[in-house]
Design a protein that fits this description.
Chain B: It is found in: Endoplasmic reticulum membrane; Microsome membrane. The complex is a heterodimer of chains A (about 475) and B (about 450). By secondary structure, chain A is α/β, with parallel strands linked by helices. Chain A is built from 21 helices and nine strands. Chain B is about 45% helix and about 15% strand. Classes of the chains: A alpha/beta (about 475), B alpha/beta (about 450).
């Protein structure tokens, strides 16, 4: 009799534990409602009461004084005392010294001597600035061409870059979106801003400017330009900001397309672990298994590549001071990402950056960081997004009805499966796997990205298209 | 029916107990000493087939004047660091307003006085000798004796710095060790090397030169200098290298003293977890504020270890960003002298840098990294040590036979309680706590570290 009681107690204890576990589990994975969010926080310097808003739009043209270019060439002409790589090492320990020396020489002797040409290229797309919430925002604004507008449906699209990228990533992508193509019935009015704290946009002057605030500023920028409803496309931070925009302001977003589909809600993480045991069940084809699995391998790769993330998320001003004091240092730090974010780069190919992106293009992007001195403010974004204020918003757990399209490039950072995405994006209309390409998709294969984006747009059936 | 269930339950519990006990024994059992080549060659290819030069030569640390001139020019450039965010001290890293002050002092005061600083750095005798292909620099400070007093016994002491430190940390500590005092029956003959790849010691150009391999080089250095048995003292990497040395070469180590005792064996990890949940079982209540719970520990690791993460994975990237970059180097290195001296200093706009150190002291330390271009090679200790290849040597599970002394300065980043140290330090004769001081006690509180060290030596009853 006593044994039965003991046995009964043990069962009851397990049942209670199980029940409690179930409650905790459901609490952890249930979707959350859209949080209250102030869409008009003042982020400029000083007190808001002294702020006189200026809603005008100003033209922007890049015009770097020759003295600055000369000074940079002089800095790049110092005798470098860089340490040689270890025997037999290429890029396994970071950006290779010999490669860096070659880049510096090219930058100084070939690139900067043609700076006027590069500046002309920068200015070949129309640029403007306007003040949003106290911050001066720089952006490219290219309207659909006359021919395209005459024959096609025209929609606005907001393009968002990430780190260590810039608007330069979109220079081949934008003309595809605005011109008269025979591929799609759509053309676009493109708005491609420099993120706050990046490029020629002002940085925030007080703590708290995270990816939700960024999404708000970008949405307000679009409203300023008269676009109440628009598409959003982005990778890296651009993808996360776009996701926040679609979540906080679904009434403004017609469709959200991402080339870095990540999701870090507890449910997504649990699903990821579960799916790793039955990968083929949760993927459209077994050929795509290595986009996501094995989880352990992907995690270790991320650990190896995320030192920059860790230091920027904790000590952005320390690393920022280093990167703004030395153009060679800036080059080493940023070029490493262009090397490792490509397939040949991962194979330690010394020509990877040249083959995949081209030297001029990568140096153009580097110049954006150098000329605007934005390495520190760009790094601060990481700290703001790991802070408790941002994490408490738990935006990854908030559903949005906005239609979503996801493009996964093989050598990008690991993405999540559709099974996981649908918990946040129940209206996932389009999902594509590419067996090539990597992190900087707009730069590396703009035509593929353009193709994928317009397929996504078409699938929304905005003009009665049959579902393809 | 009940009988079967009872037998099942009892049987199951007995099995669990047996497994638990076997695991416990395994965890407690000392590991096997790994096979390390005491004569492994770590030098450049050009010297590989050359016979090792065993001569010990005095070393001139003088800096070429053109390096100082170039440095002055670089520090005269307009500072491009971004304004700190409103209301922020050092919470985002090195505050650029403070950085501007440091740079100004460096250029206008420190470098104007460079001859004096260089003379000061030469106050000890510097030497270099080739160990396993690498040029190893060290300070050799012989003890003094007081005339008319009975001479004190002399013990040799290997003193090792860490990252981002240098031998400069020991400039006020060494005289205390070499001068007779009423605090000790001993004086010490001090060998303070620059770690390989740091300061004036050459870094290896081969992969695989991790903390255990560095310990072999340091031990061979002591043998070269004629010291078969010696004491070891260190913090940071100095503590880890010393721990490896004492584990691998018990025949050479008289005693081991550290201000950052660590134990990375599995048993210690389990004990740390338990200590987090049941602190009173493991920690003396009067020192409970030294020992953080696991949650706090992980928070601290996340907050403070970004540098270690990038150095362990991409030392070439971050190294190349800091070489030839004096402002960046100062920011990166001096951040640690703020935060690791006291994490409360993160709240201060000046990082509390001058609360415990002078700008001269701090810049001496930065200058050593700068003029020797050693920042990249210094970081490789991380990338070569924090990998499975190094950890699989499992030196952590080798107990240290020598008498050991651990001391805890309260503002050190983390502390390991004595209960979690015992399987690594079975002869722990000294475990003290100081309610002051942080990660760099030799630099910050040399008198207190000296008194603690000689108290250990006394207890060790050598």
């Amino acid at each position: 009799m006593k044994c039965l009681i003991v046995f009964g107690l043990i069962v009851a204890a397990f049942a209670a534990l199980g029940g409690y576990g179930y409650l905790v589990f459901t609490d952890l994975v249930k979707p959350l409602p859209k949080p209250e969010f102030n869409d008009n926080t003042y982020w400029g310097p000083g007190e808001e009461k002294d702020y006189k808003p200026d809603t005008k739009i100003y033209e922007f043209k890049l015009d770097v004084p020759q003295a600055e270019i000369d000074d940079l060439r002089q800095q790049l002409n110092r005798t470098l005392k860089l340490t040689e790589p270890l025997d037999g090492i290429a890029f396994e320990y970071g950006f290779n010294t010999y490669a860096l020396e070659q880049f510096v020489e090219y930058w100084r002797e070939k690139y900067l001597t043609k700076w006027d040409e590069r500046q002309e290229l920068f200015n070949s797309l129309k640029q403007y600035t306007t003040e949003i919430q106290g911050l001066n925002i720089h952006y490219i604004h290219e309207k659909a061409s006359e021919e395209a507008a005459a024959r096609k449906h025209v929609y606005p699209v907001l393009l968002l870059h990430g780190w260590p990228g810039s608007v330069r990533e979109f220079y081949d992508f934008i003309p595809m979106l605005t011109k008269d193509q025979n591929i799609s019935d759509y053309a676009f009015d493109v708005v491609a801003p420099s993120l706050v704290g990046y490029g020629w946009s002002d940085p925030a002057t007080r703590p708290g400017f995270n990816a939700a605030e960024m999404a708000t500023v970008m949405r307000n920028l679009m409203l300023r330009l008269g676009h109440k409803q628009f598409f959003v496309q982005g990778g890296d931070w651009g993808s996360i900001i776009g996701s926040n925009l679609a979540t906080l302001y679904p009434e403004n977003v017609i469709g959200y397309h991402s080339n870095m589909c990540v999701l870090n809600s507890p449910l997504a993480i649990l699903k990821g672990i579960y799916a790793s045991f039955y990968p083929e069940k949760y993927l459209p084809s077994r050929f795509f298994v290595d986009h996501h699995f094995p989880v352990w391998e992907k995690y270790l790769e991320l650990l190896k590549e995320s030192g920059y993330f860790h230091i920027q998320a904790t000590k952005p001003d320390t690393i920022g001071a280093a990167l703004t004091s030395s153009p060679v240092g800036l080059a080493s730090y940023i070029l490493e990402k262009f090397q490792t974010c490509t397939n040949p780069g991962l194979q330690q190919d010394f020509g990877a950056i040249v083959t995949v992106f081209g030297l001029e293009t990568v140096l153009d992007n580097l110049m954006v960081y150098y000329l605007t001195n934005s390495a520190t403010t760009a790094a601060r974004f990481y700290l703001e997004n790991v802070s408790k204020t941002y994490r408490d918003l738990q935006l990854d757990r908030v559903q949005t009805p906005v239609p979503m399209g996801c493009a996964r490039f093989r050598f990008d950072l690991p993405s999540v499966t559709d099974w996981q995405l649908r918990d946040k994006f129940p209206n996932l209309k389009h999902s594509m796997y590419f067996q090539q390409g990597s992190h900087f998709a707009a730069l590396e294969m703009p035509a593929m990205l353009y193709n994928d984006f317009t397929i996504f747009v078409r699938k929304l059936g905005l003009h009665g298209e049959e579902n393809i | 029916m009940a009988n079967i269930w009872v037998r099942f339950l009892v049987g199951g519990l007995a099995l669990l107990a047996a497994i638990g006990y076997k695991n416990y024994l395994d965890l407690h059992a000392p590991g096997k000493r790994p096979d390390l080549d005491n004569k492994a060659f770590w030098g450049p290819k050009s010297r590989e087939s050359v016979k090792e030069a065993t001569v010990i030569l005095p070393f001139d640390i003088s800096v070429k004047p053109e390096i100082i001139e170039d440095l002055k020019n670089q520090l005269s450039r307009p500072l491009k660091a971004q304004e700190p965010l409103e209301g922020v001290g050092f919470e985002y890293g090195f505050n650029s307003k403070e950085l501007a002050k440091v740079v100004k002092y460096w250029r206008d005061t420190y470098l104007a006085n460079w001859d004096k600083r260089e003379q000061y750095l030469k106050k000890f005798d510097h030497f270099r000798t080739e160990i396993q292909g690498l040029q190893i620099h060290f300070i050799h400070a012989k003890p003094t004796q007081v005339k008319g007093q009975a001479p004190k016994k002399v013990l040799p002491l290997l003193l090792m710095h860490g990252w981002p430190g240098t031998v400069r940390e020991f400039y006020d500590f060494i005289p205390l060790l070499t001068t007779p005092s009423d605090k000790s029956d001993y004086v010490f003959e001090v060998i303070a090397p620059s770690l390989p790849g740091y300061g004036w010691s050459q870094g290896s150009s081969k992969t695989g030169f991790g903390v255990a391999q560095v310990a072999v080089v340091m031990r061979n250095l002591m043998l070269r200098l004629g010291f078969e048995k010696f004491l070891v003292q260190g913090g940071d990497w100095g503590s880890l290298i010393g721990s490896n040395l004492a584990s691998l070469f018990p025949e050479n180590v008289l005693g081991y003293h550290s201000n950052m005792c660590t134990n990375n064996s599995p048993l210690a990890s389990i004990k740390l977890v338990l200590a987090s949940v049941f602190p009173s079982w493991f920690v003396d209540s009067q020192y409970s504020d030294f020992y953080k719970g696991l949650g706090d520990l992980f928070g601290t690791i996340l907050e403070e270890m970004g540098y270690a993460h990038i150095q362990a994975s991409k030392p070439d990237t971050i190294g190349n960003a800091l070489i030839d970059n004096p402002v960046g180097l100062a920011s990166y290195i001096l951040e640690k002298f703020s935060t690791w001296t006291n994490t409360e200093y993160r709240k201060l706009p000046d990082g509390g840098l001058t609360k415990r150190f002078t700008y001269d002291q701090l810049l001496d330390n930065v200058m050593i990294y700068y003029v020797t271009n050693s920042i990249t090679t210094s970081m490789r200790l991380y990338s070569e040590s924090m990998i499975t290849k190094q950890m699989s040597l499992n030196v952590d599970s080798l107990p240290i036979q020598a008498k050991a002394g651990c001391t805890h300065f309260i503002n050190e980043i983390t502390h390991v309680p004595e209960a979690a140290l015992t399987n690594k330090f079975p002869n722990l004769v000294h475990n003290t706590h100081h309610r002051d001081g942080g990660h760099f006690p030799a630099f910050e509180l040399p008198q207190q570290l000296y008194e603690d060290f000689v108290a250990f030596v006394k207890k060790a009853d050598l």
